[in-house]
What we know:
Layout (H helix, E strand, L loop, with lengths): L9 H4 L2 H9 L2 E4 L14 E4 L2 E7 L14 H17 L8 E8 L5 H11 L6 E6 L9 E8 L5
Helix pairs in contact: 3-4
Amino acid sequence: MFSTRPQTSAVCWESESFREGAEKMKKRVIQTDKAPKAIGPYSQAIQAGNMIFLSGQIPLDPRTGEVVLGDIRKQTVRVLENLKGMLESQNLGMEDVVKTTIFLKNLDYFNQVNDVYGTYFSSSPPARSTVEVARLPRNVEIEIEAIALIPGQS
Length: 154
C-alpha cells in the first residue's frame, strides 16, 4: 500500500546543527519610547534571528498614548512614524522592511493611504497585504504591522 504522507526522520530534528540553529533563533523582546507602549499583553516587536516582527501600530502619539485625530492621511503618517521609530531604535530604516500588512476599516481609504505609504517606501517597497476589517483597537481607522530584515546578519 502506498502512503501519501511524507516520511520524516526524528533523527533529523535531534541533530547537533538543528540545536545550534535553534539557539541562534532565540527571541529578543524590543521596547522603545520611539513608539507607543503596548496596550495589551504583547511586545512592541520581537527579534528572531535576523528578522524583526513589529506589532501592528495604530495612530497613537507615543508621548501621550492618545489617538491622533484627523483624516486618514494624518493617521497613516502617525502609524508609519511609529513603525519608523521602532526600526530606528534598532538602527534600521524603512528600507529594511520586507513585508507589511495594512488593516483598514474602510477600503475607500485605499488610495489616500497609498499616497502617504508611497512617501515612506519610495524605492524597493516591501511586499504588502491590505485588508478591510470590521473594527480595530480604540476604534481607529488604520493599523499596520511589519516584518524587517536585519542586513548582514544571518
